[in-house]
Amino acid sequence: MSDLHRRHLLGYLPLIGAFALTLVWLIAPSAVLGADGVPSGARQALAPVTWMIGTLVAIAIGLGIAICTAIIVWGGIEKMLAGANSESEHKAQRRISNGIMGLVWMVVASVVVSVITAIAIAYGLIEKPF
Fold first, then answer.
1. Is 51 within 8 Å of 129 (Cβ atoms)?
2. For the segment 78-129, what is each residue's pLDDT rounded down to a tens digit?
3. How far apart are CA 50 and CA 120, in angstroms?
4. pLDDT tens across 44-66, in order?
5. Per-residue DSSP letters for 50-95?
6. From CA 26, how far away is CA 22, in angstroms rounded?
7. Euclidean distance between CA atoms 76 and 81, whole angstroms
8. Strand, helix or coil at 17?
């Protein structure tokens, strides 16, 4: 493995460490897990808030996916219209790549929100939002 490649991989080490720490923090037992659950009065009082947050997150993720898809299509159109201009073609390729990366992040965000919601529902912290 070359030195440049090794330095590039070491650049991701803080991100990997933060991800591992977050997983341990989510999995580790806490006082909430030992509790009897959320009182019904509190659950009923927070129901509109959890519904509103769930709706806003769903709208944000859906809007992000729509924007990323539009960016990918825009990049594709730019690439078709670039012709022999390599600079325009490179810009269009970058736009497509950025749109795909944004789409991947939106899907990851959707999965993370779904997992956190499922854990909260399983432990009785919230009711099913939809």
1. yes
2. 999 988 888 989 999 999 999 999 999 999 999 998 888 888 888 777 777 7
3. 11
4. 787 788 888 888 999 999 999 99
5. HHHHHHHHHHHHHHHHHHHHHHHHHHHHHHHHHTT-HHHHHHHHHH
6. 6
7. 9
8. helix
